[in-house]
Design a protein that fits this description.
Blueprint (H helix, E strand, L loop, with lengths): L1 H12 L5 E8 L8 H13 L6 E6 L12 E4 L3 H8 L1 E6 L14 E4 L20 H13 L2 E3 L3 H10 L5 E3 L14 H10 L7 E5 L16 H12 L3 E5 L18 E3 L6 H7 L2 E4 L4 H5 L6 E4 L3 H7 L13 E3 L2 H9 L3 H15 L7 H24 L1
Parallel strand pairs: 1-2, 1-4, 2-3, 4-5, 5-6, 6-7, 8-9, 8-11, 9-10, 11-12, 12-13
Length: about 400
């Protein structure tokens, strides 16, 4: 019944005039204010001095987003949600849209995706392990897509082959990574204060991906010994931030946490956590490629690599091709931390960025806003110029 009502609302509101200056955004189906849509939105707000754009965000719980003064907010699946979605010229998201986005003629859909590059195979390349319902949704979504953002030439090749998308690929980098190019000390300090982290402490972020069985055992590490190793290698006191995949949000509090540890799984913006982190430990998550921009140490803790690649997802790279340091056990992880060589690591990182053809320069949001302005106002401006 809800689906029928929603479709009636869509077809009704699709009769209303589309507003050329309206941009509609949502991230992970309205669950947060983060990822690429956040950084696009922030850039528009900072550079739209004349108020040309009407920016609308959809949230599952809009009342929780009290700090957002520069955008209008609607609740997902509400009457206002369907009206704003149907009458927006530009629609931006970072995940697949469902059948409840019926794209209008001349509406412009920007798919930012949610990684600049990835280790795990995706979409058509992983079709044999993805649910059939998801595949159907992904194919429909791809046909709606006008613009797909790419962080590097390697990603462009994946999108061409595996995304079922014939739309334009925008090769200017990833908006959410722009912040990693900025030496914004005030922002870093504010994030630390928000998390109650001492400004003198070093930060390690542990951010693994999920497994299909949602088992937490793989994430249980001896953080006391790892903290001692970090202190021996790099000095200072250390704070450990643990951010599990959003799929595990309801289970993250079941891990054992020490006095210097914090569960940040519910934290909206992973990019802010990367910004304040001195070291990253992950496994198969695409975060490693975002963090590579900082050239700070990243270690891959992958004791289950044979099981994961056999049962969950195949990988795009051999681990030896990556500039990151892999460890198959906790003992090996501590040994690799102690043996870390920054100069050697940076040389490997530079070669990897060259090999993958990185487009990341910290200006992705700038280039995209220029493109959006042309989409929204280009024809009007041409007509005005011709009249003059």
């Amino acid at each position: 019944m809800k689906q029928v009502l929603a479709r009636l609302l869509i077809y009704f509101f699709n009769l209303f005039p589309m507003q050329n200056n309206k941009i509609f955004l949502f991230s992970y189906y309205g669950s947060n204010y983060g990822c690429n849509p956040k950084y696009i939105s922030n850039y528009i707000s900072a550079h739209d001095a004349k108020g040309k754009f009407d920016v609308v965000w959809a949230f599952n719980h809009p009342d929780d987003k009290t700090g957002l003064k520069h955008v209008r907010k609607v609740k997902t699946m509400s009457l206002a949600y369907f009206y704003e979605l149907c009458t927006s010229k530009v629609v931006i998201t970072n995940y697949r849209t469902t059948d409840l986005f019926v794209k209008r003629k001349n509406q412009y859909y920007i798919q930012t995706w949610h990684s600049s590059l990835r280790l795990k195979q995706i979409e058509k390349d992983a079709e044999d392990v993805l649910p059939p319902g998801y595949i159907r949704m992904a194919k429909k979504d791809s046909r709606k897509c006008d613009l797909l953002l790419s962080g590097c030439a390697y990603s462009t090749a994946i999108f061409r082959r595996a995304f079922w998308c014939d739309g334009e690929i925008f090769e200017h980098g990833t908006p959410r990574n722009d912040v990693l190019f900025q030496n914004n000390r005030m922002l870093r300090n504010n994030i630390r204060e928000k998390l109650n982290i001492d400004q003198t402490a070093n930060v390690l972020l542990y951010a693994p991906t999920f497994r299909n069985n949602n088992d937490l055992d793989i994430y249980q590490l001896d953080w006391t010994r790892i903290t001692d190793t970090l202190r021996s290698k790099f000095g200072n006191d250390w704070v450990i931030l643990v951010k599990l995949h959003p799929h595990l949000l309801h289970k993250s509090d079941q891990l054992a946490y020490g006095s210097n540890m914090m569960d940040v799984t519910a934290y909206d913006d992973i990019q802010e956590l990367l910004l304040i982190s001195d070291v990253l430990i992950t496994d198969y998550s695409s975060l490693m490629f975002d963090f590579s921009i900082t050239k700070r140490p990243c270690f891959l803790y992958i004791p289950d690599v044979k099981t994961y690649t056999g049962q969950d997802r195949k990988l795009y790279f051999d681990l030896d091709e990556l500039p990151f340091i892999s460890a198959m056990s906790e003992e090996m992880l501590r040994e690799e931390i102690m043996a870390f060589d920054q100069n050697k690591y940076e040389r490997k990182m530079t070669r990897f960025h060259k090999m993958t053809g990185s487009f990341e320069q910290g200006k992705a949001s700038k280039h995209l806003l220029e493109h959006i302005e042309q989409v929204c106002f280009g024809k009007q401006r041409r007509e005005t110029d011709e009249a003059i």
